[in-house]
Amino acid sequence: MKSTRYEAFDTRASEWIGDMTVWLRENAPDNSEQRERLFRNLHKVMEDELTPRQRQMVMMYYFQRKNIPKIADELGINRSTVSRTLTRGKNRIRRFLKYSF
Protein backbone atom coordinates (compact mmCIF):
# COMPACT_ATOMS: atom_id res chain seq x y z
CA MET A 1 0.00 0.00 0.00
CA LYS A 2 1.33 3.41 -0.96
CA SER A 3 1.94 5.89 1.83
CA THR A 4 0.71 9.41 1.33
CA ARG A 5 2.24 12.56 2.70
CA TYR A 6 -0.81 12.99 4.96
CA GLU A 7 -0.18 9.66 6.70
CA ALA A 8 3.39 10.73 7.43
CA PHE A 9 2.13 14.04 8.80
CA ASP A 10 -0.39 12.27 11.05
CA THR A 11 2.37 10.10 12.49
CA ARG A 12 4.63 13.07 13.18
CA ALA A 13 1.74 15.09 14.58
CA SER A 14 0.71 12.35 16.98
CA GLU A 15 4.31 11.97 18.18
CA TRP A 16 4.54 15.73 18.75
CA ILE A 17 1.22 15.75 20.63
CA GLY A 18 2.44 12.90 22.82
CA ASP A 19 5.67 14.76 23.57
CA MET A 20 3.75 17.94 24.43
CA THR A 21 1.38 16.01 26.70
CA VAL A 22 4.29 14.56 28.66
CA TRP A 23 5.98 17.96 28.89
CA LEU A 24 2.77 19.66 30.07
CA ARG A 25 2.11 16.98 32.68
CA GLU A 26 5.63 17.34 34.05
CA ASN A 27 5.64 21.16 34.05
CA ALA A 28 2.05 22.02 34.87
CA PRO A 29 1.31 23.54 38.26
CA ASP A 30 -0.37 21.29 40.80
CA ASN A 31 -4.13 21.84 40.65
CA SER A 32 -5.18 19.14 43.08
CA GLU A 33 -6.65 21.63 45.54
CA GLN A 34 -8.86 23.18 42.85
CA ARG A 35 -9.96 19.74 41.67
CA GLU A 36 -10.83 18.64 45.20
CA ARG A 37 -12.83 21.83 45.78
CA LEU A 38 -14.63 21.37 42.47
CA PHE A 39 -15.57 17.75 43.27
CA ARG A 40 -16.76 18.71 46.75
CA ASN A 41 -18.89 21.48 45.28
CA LEU A 42 -20.21 19.21 42.54
CA HIS A 43 -21.33 16.68 45.14
CA LYS A 44 -22.95 19.43 47.20
CA VAL A 45 -24.75 20.91 44.17
CA MET A 46 -26.03 17.51 43.12
CA GLU A 47 -27.36 16.81 46.62
CA ASP A 48 -28.74 20.24 47.45
CA GLU A 49 -29.72 21.91 44.19
CA LEU A 50 -30.95 19.24 41.79
CA THR A 51 -34.39 17.73 41.95
CA PRO A 52 -34.45 14.00 42.71
CA ARG A 53 -35.35 13.28 39.07
CA GLN A 54 -32.54 15.46 37.73
CA ARG A 55 -30.08 13.85 40.13
CA GLN A 56 -31.20 10.37 39.07
CA MET A 57 -30.80 11.11 35.37
CA VAL A 58 -27.47 12.92 35.77
CA MET A 59 -26.14 9.93 37.73
CA MET A 60 -27.38 7.48 35.10
CA TYR A 61 -26.02 9.53 32.19
CA TYR A 62 -22.61 10.60 33.50
CA PHE A 63 -21.67 8.10 36.19
CA GLN A 64 -23.32 4.94 34.88
CA ARG A 65 -22.58 5.91 31.23
CA LYS A 66 -26.09 5.16 29.98
CA ASN A 67 -27.37 6.88 26.87
CA ILE A 68 -30.64 8.80 26.62
CA PRO A 69 -32.66 6.01 24.95
CA LYS A 70 -31.50 3.52 27.61
CA ILE A 71 -32.46 5.89 30.44
CA ALA A 72 -35.85 6.53 28.82
CA ASP A 73 -36.51 2.79 28.47
CA GLU A 74 -35.50 2.04 32.07
CA LEU A 75 -37.61 4.86 33.50
CA GLY A 76 -40.52 4.33 31.11
CA ILE A 77 -40.54 7.91 29.89
CA ASN A 78 -40.07 9.71 26.59
CA ARG A 79 -36.54 10.40 25.29
CA SER A 80 -37.29 14.10 24.98
CA THR A 81 -38.23 14.18 28.68
CA VAL A 82 -34.85 12.68 29.56
CA SER A 83 -33.07 15.17 27.31
CA ARG A 84 -34.90 18.18 28.77
CA THR A 85 -34.36 17.00 32.33
CA LEU A 86 -30.63 16.44 31.72
CA THR A 87 -30.34 19.88 30.14
CA ARG A 88 -32.02 21.53 33.12
CA GLY A 89 -29.81 19.59 35.53
CA LYS A 90 -26.60 20.44 33.65
CA ASN A 91 -27.56 24.12 33.48
CA ARG A 92 -28.29 24.18 37.19
CA ILE A 93 -24.96 22.49 38.00
CA ARG A 94 -23.13 24.90 35.70
CA ARG A 95 -24.84 27.92 37.28
CA PHE A 96 -23.77 26.91 40.80
CA LEU A 97 -20.27 25.67 39.94
CA LYS A 98 -19.24 28.79 38.06
CA TYR A 99 -18.67 30.37 41.48
CA SER A 100 -16.34 27.55 42.56
CA PHE A 101 -13.31 28.95 40.81
Question: Would you summarize the structure shown here?
Answer:
The chain is mainly alpha-helical. The chain is built from five helices and no strands.
Please tell me the CATH architecture of the domain at 40-97 by its name: Orthogonal Bundle
Low-confidence stretches: none
Which CATH class of the domain at 40-97 is shown? Mainly Alpha
CATH superfamily of the domain at 40-97: Winged helix-like DNA-binding domain superfamily/Winged helix DNA-binding domain
Helical segment tally? 5
Task: Report the sheet with the most strands, covering strand number, pairing sense and barrel closure.
Answer: none
Gyration radius (Cα, Å) is 20 Å
Task: Determine the mean pLDDT.
Answer: 85
Q: Which structural category fits the helices and strands?
A: mainly alpha
| β-sheet strand percentage | under 5%
- The total beta strand count reads 0
Give the overall form.
flat
Helix-strand sequence:
HHHHH
Describe the protein.
The chain has 101 residues and is mainly alpha-helical. α2 (32-48) packs across α5, α3 (52-63) packs across α5 (79-97) and α4 crosses α5 (79-97). It has helices at 5-27, 32-48, 52-63, 68-75, 79-97. The chain has a domain at 40-97: Orthogonal Bundle (Arc Repressor Mutant, subunit A), CATH 1.10.10.10. The protein has five helices and no strands.
Identify the notable features of this structure and list them briefly.
5 helices, mainly alpha, 101 residues, Arc Repressor Mutant, subunit A
